[in-house]
Each structure stands twice: as C-alpha cells, then as structure tokens.
Amino acid sequence: MHLKDIVSFISVSNNVSYDDNIEVTSIETDSRKVKKGSLFVAISGFTVDGHDFIDDAINNGAVAVMVEKEVQAEVATIKVSDTKRALAMTSAMFYGNPTSKVPMIGITGTNGKTTITYLLERIFNRYHKKTGIFGTIQMKIGEESFPIQNTTPDALFLQRKIAEMIQQDVDQVIMEVSSHALDMGRVFGCDYDIAVFTNLSQDHLDYHDSMEDYLRAKSLLFAQLGNGYQENNKKAAVINVDDPSSTLLMKSTAQHVITYGCHTTADVMAENIQLAANGTKFTLKTILGTTEIHSKLIGKFNVYNMLASVAVAIASDIPLVDIKESLESIEGVKGRFESVIPDHKYSVIVDYAHTPDSLENVLQTIQEIAERNIYVVVGCGGDRDKTKRPLMAQIAHKYADYPIFTSDNPRTEDPEAILKDMTDGLPSDSKQYEVIADRRQAIRYAIQRAEEKDVILIAGKGHETYQQIGHKKYDFDDREVALEVMREREN
Ligand SMILES: CC(=O)N[C@H]1[C@@H](OP(=O)(O)OP(=O)(O)OC[C@H]2O[C@@H](n3ccc(=O)[nH]c3=O)[C@H](O)[C@@H]2O)O[C@H](CO)[C@@H](O)[C@@H]1O[C@H](C)C(=O)N[C@@H](C)C(=O)N[C@H](CCC(=O)O)C(=O)O
Ligand SMILES: Nc1ncnc2c1ncn2[C@@H]1O[C@H](COP(=O)(O)OP(=O)(O)OP(=O)(O)O)[C@@H](O)[C@H]1O
C-alpha cells in the first residue's frame, strides 16, 4: 500500500513530508518487530514512549513513522494528534476494513462479558456458524485457541486477526470490549453490528477518574454502533434495562434497541426464576414467543447472561428453538462458578469474581443454595483499583461464615499492605476472619476445615493459571491447588 493512501485516508495531508512512491509493506508499533518497508507508529505508552524508539525502528528498516509529538526523523513522518486512534484507522484500512466484512458483536459491561461470549459461541456453533472470539480467557478461531495479553487487544493485532479470521471462513466475530480499549481507541474503526451492555458497577477506578468516566467509556461502544464503513447489516443495541446505567446508554445510540431484564418490562425477559444448586429454571419471554429454560448454569446473574445472549441471537435471526437447545446444553464456562469436584460431600467452587458486585452476586447465589456453612477465600490485586479493597472484604465478611483473606496477583505491592487495606474496613467487634497471605495455605486452611455440605468459594482468579508477584508470573491454579488438598484429605 502507498503511504499517500494512508495519509489521505486519515486526512492529515498538511502535516506530512513524504515521497508518494513509498510502499508500506507492514505496520508495526513495536520497534523490535519492524522490518524493511514497515510504517512504525509511535505510541505514548504507560510504561515507555514509542517515540523514544524511532531510531531503532528506522535502523530496523522503517520507511515511515507516524507520531503525535515533534520529532526529527530521517524518513517520511506523519504527524497526527493521537497515534492510538490513527493506528486504529490505519490498521483497519491496511487490512481492508475486515470488521465491515464479517458480522461483529461487541460486549461491554463490568461483569458477564466472558460468560455471554461463550453462550453465544455455543448458540452460533450449533447454528453451523464458525465463530472468532476475543476475550479475557483467550482468542479463538473456530476450535483453535490462542493466548492473548489483553481482553481487547490493541488495534493493530485486532484488525490483523479479524482479517485472518475472515480468511479462515469465520462467519461471526464475538468480542469482549473493555472500557480500557474503548477509552484508548483500540476498537476505534471497528464496525459493530450488535453492541451489548451487561451492567455497570465499581471497578477500574485506578484507570478511570470516576464512575461517570467509566460509564462514558462504555457508552463509546454504542455511540460507535453503525458508524462503520458499510451499512449492509442490521444494527442493534442490546441493553440490560434493569441496570440504572441503561438509560444513558440507550440515549448514546441511534440504532434499534433490544432490551432484556428480569424486573423491568423488556423485549427479552425472564419470569418464574427458580435457582438451585444444580441449575436454574425460568420462563423466557421474547418477541418470538415464550419457552421454558432449564439451564445447568447457576445463579441469577447467569439468567441475565442468558437473556443477553438470547437477545443477540434473536437480532441475528436465530430461531428460538435453537437458542433454547444451546442454552440448555451448556455445562458452564471455565473459572466461572466452576465446581472442582462435582457432587462432592462438600463443595469447592472456583470463580473469577474480582469486583464487589460480582463477589456479592456469587455469594448471594451460594447463600441461596448452601445447606451449611460458607467459606470464602478472596484477595485483591496489587497495582489496581484500591477503593474496591475494603468493599470486597466487607462483602466477603457479610455473606460468608468463614472469610479468609489472601493474596491475588499482588504485582509490585506488598501483599500484607493490600490485606490491611481490605481488612481495615471491617467492623472491629464483628465475627472472626483469617488473614493468610499465602494463597495456597489459605485454600488449604479452608478445605481442611470444611464439613459435609459446606461450600468453599475460592474467588478472584477463575481461569487464571498464574499468580503475578512483582513483574513475574508464577504457575498457580486455584483448581489444581484445591484438588490436591481435597485428595490429600481423602487419604
Ligand atoms: C495500561 C494499559 O492498558 N497498558 C497497555 C499498553 O501498555 P503500555 O502503555 O505500558 O505500553 P508500553 O509497554 O509502555 O509501550 C509503549 C509503546 O512502545 C513500544 N516499544 C516498547 C519497547 C521497545 O523497545 N520498542 C517499542 O517500540 C511498544 O510496542 C508500545 O507501542 O499497551 C499494551 C499493548 O497494547 C497493552 O498490552 C497494555 O495493557 C496492559 C498489559 C494491561 O494490563 N492493561 C489492562 C489495564 C487492560 O487494558 N485491561 C483491559 C481489561 C480489563 C478488564 O475488563 O478486566 C483489557 O482490555 O485487557
Ligand atoms: N451478569 C453478571 N452480573 C454480575 N456478576 C456476574 C455476571 N456474570 C458473571 N458474573 C460474576 O462475575 C465474574 C466474571 O464474569 P465474566 O468473566 O463473565 O465477566 P467479565 O465481564 O468477562 O469480567 P472481566 O472483564 O473481568 O473479564 C463471574 O465469575 C461471576 O462471579
């Protein structure tokens, strides 16, 4: 592709010194990946500044650079006001606007994104549609899985991978869209057909200045809906009307809105909800008709996740009978309310709940189904939203008979200091709790004490198989540790 095409596409013609004949053969944001013919886009990062690596990029063969700061470079230089957003547009163009060639579903909200993604994967696959997935657990193309660093990858990776998905005959892309990604413009230039809002509750206040700022970031997905390069497909915003933030989000989109909920009248609704330890039953009411759902997923929050997936499936013209069969066939999602040994005399559940709202939802569910005592093993991540630490501890303390506070990815912080932030918020005259910084020991402590019919919730890490201490990740899997201790107890 000629550099002039990129320049004219992103409309910055008055800021460029370049030779019309320059051929750009790849785009890179990492100087170490630059090859002969690359356009190097300098990103001002949170840890380092890509502008400091321009010379490295040129030495590696960059024929042009895109910058947002004043620099002296010996190659064609394109100056833009925001390289992250310009990168998103340039990458989309370079890979042939892939998001306009395949139906795209974007899911945003504090909780439920991953679960809904896998419910939708099941529904689309059952309907013989090959899916491509981006999310917290992994990236998937059909049945093949690939690790990814971020829930929503940077624009360059994203556009490149969606182009690959199209080459591999993917019929439907389903992606989790984080508020970070929306705010940083990682998905700027993506043409979504369906945008989903699950809920908003406190999280990520280390990144966003306030809850209003967090919500504003989420609303960008809806503002963006229908602003793509092609308007061939029907567009729809799928919104949880039971969440107070839904009003603002509905105002953010000019597109058709499909609502879902349990309490407010909605296009897709659940009634007569019956929660049990082995699954959930409810009456599903939709614009296509009414049916009974018997799902193996546990908890009211999962009813919401199912309703969201039904609304998306209906907007994608999938018949209700196929939607019902898919929902009823799904056993669960990795690390989400996952039982370590099903039907054991006491239950050990691993769950990704790492926000106050999700922890409360999961503990409320356990309280509804538990026959005896509840143990919770929970911590809070280091270098992340500190304001949620006392809230997490208070919730654990409120719902569990035996709260055990421990480490969860302390990163560069002292685990004991994080635990102090958590427990300082607890009332001093209240019930006993344990503080055991070593996560393995904390899990062991809970399992060794559990009696028949007790439930132990190990919260916060779900599918993760590491513990991040400092800048290093060490192998650690809650399920494996729990299994080891459970087996040890049997012998
Ligand atoms: C705060 C944040 O989001 N940081 C993201 C950001 O990293 P960064 O700003 O630190 O980048 P950097 O390492 O300083 O590098 C800046 C630039 O210099 C370049 N560079 C660097 C070194 C060199 O030798 N040459 C060179 O060119 C880099 O390639 C890069 O372009 O850009 C990276 C590449 O895209 C991201 O992986 C990284 O996410 C980090 C890992 C992260 O933890 N992000 C979290 C907060 C996040 O985004 N989470 C949400 C989900 C949250 C949730 O829902 O739970 C997500 O979508 O993942
Ligand atoms: N709809 C929901 N409402 C509230 N809590 C939920 C909901 N769905 C799941 N949860 C809880 O939140 C946890 C995370 O769920 P899930 O991974 O589906 O959400 P997510 O939005 O992808 O989270 P993240 O952005 O952190 O990856 C689950 O383990 C469960 O405890």
Number of domains: 3
Q: What CATH architecture of the largest domain would you give?
A: 3-Layer(aba) Sandwich
Largest sheet strand order: 9-8-7-10-6-11-12-13-14-15-16
Return the average pLDDT rounded to an integer: 92
Rg result: 24 Å
What molecules are bound to this protein?
A: ligand UAG, adenosine-5'-triphosphate
Structural class based on helices, strands and sheet pairing: alpha/beta
CATH topology assignment of the largest domain: UDP-N-acetylmuramoyl-L-alanine:D-glutamate ligase
Oligomer: single chain
CATH-defined superfamily of the largest domain: Mur-like, catalytic domain
Quote the beta fraction.
Answer: 15-25%
Termini Cα gap? 66 Å
Overall geometry comes to globular
Q: Give the helix proportion (percent range).
A: 25-40%
Provide the CATH top-level class of the largest domain.
Alpha Beta
Largest sheet: 11 strands, mixed
Main location: cytoplasm
Subcellular location: Cytoplasm
GO molecular function: ATP binding; magnesium ion binding; UDP-N-acetylmuramoylalanyl-D-glutamate-2,6-diaminopimelate ligase activity
Pathway: Cell wall biogenesis; peptidoglycan biosynthesis
